Amino acid sequence: MKNIMKNKVFKILFIVLFVTLENNLNAVDQGGYVGKVWKSEKVTWIDKEFGHEITKWTSDKYRSWPLYFDVESFIDKNHVIIYSNRSGGINLFRLDLINGTMVQMTNEKGNISGSVWYIPKYKILWYKIGNTIHSLNSETFENKVVFQTDSLEIKSFSITVNKKYLVFSVNKNPGFSDNCSTGPYAIFRFGLTDGSLKQITPDYGFIISHVQANPVNPDIIIYAWQHRYRPGSSGIVGNTPIRIWWVNIKGTKGGPVGPQEFGLHRTHEFWTYDGKRIGYSARYKFGPNLGKQYLGSCKPDGSDNFMFKAPVGPAHSQIYKDNKHWVADQNNGMILTLWTFDRGKVIKEEKLFRHNSSWNGQPSHPHPHFSPEGKKIIFGTDRTGTPCVYTVKINLDDQKWK
Predict the structure, then answer these.
(1) Engineered SS bond to 256: which of 242, 251, 289, 316, CB 3.0-4.6 Å?
(2) Is the confidence at residue 28, as pLDDT, over 80?
(3) Mean pLDDT in the chain?
């Protein structure tokens, strides 16, 4: 009897040990820097030109900048995720917007400078290193590998709002040429719970980027026909006839989000917080409206489109959750500006700060984000010669901003 009991206990312990090992198989040891607190570097002043309170949160000693504008970056109203190279490589940090301290969230040997996706309600951030996708808990910093491939070259990615699928674009023939269209490109989905892998778009002869899962509906994905405008860039160089595309998660429906008017070039598309509309900046590259610039919005199927005139160029922009306030860069991208709007009509324009970014690479780009309660806008600029993180104080509940 004793031997039988010992065998049962041994079997139970073995099963528990096996399950524990299996659950922790993908856990990543990030080393001693994770959780390190970096002291505050913040400096606050009242801007003389436009009169708003500006805070510079990071010093010129390091390169630091916000996440891309189409990715949620606020953990809560007082904490935001940023990039910085202060520990060597480019890693992720949680910036406290009250006391200015920064807590290191990752300690990767490579650079986390590409695709990142964050869903606040789960407190989980996903990021890419090479062809490996990690999940990272923004509170505990628990770090796991959720997908890794040696056969696919992952470009842009996103996570569906139900955490069910990783959706990503792939260059299926990366070695074809560095000087012409490198495709075909396609979008794949990977099941984060069942491990399934499926291509959900046809092969396309253009570069696919800016993959964005809808923040409310897990069935809809938008992406961009990415143009290249610099001589020597890989891929088709020039403006795209249809910039914004969509696909459903099953891969049974999708196509261009149109119609896009002839001569109009859309860019920097993003979802509104309620997931009901797509925002974008636009400018006419040829035709009778040559040179005119706009901010615009449409439904995911391209219907109910409106635009209002704004001198924004290829601006980064974001619409606040009230769908009444729109932040972007104007005057050739040098002045952060807030527009109060009603569809195609501008109610008010408020210049916030002349950031004078060089626009030399993503770390210098402004990438503005509204805080959850509409009290501040975070942005980046290299106006001092080094990319740094800033905020401008606002209050969208105040009558002044209505």
Answers:
(1) 242
(2) no
(3) 88
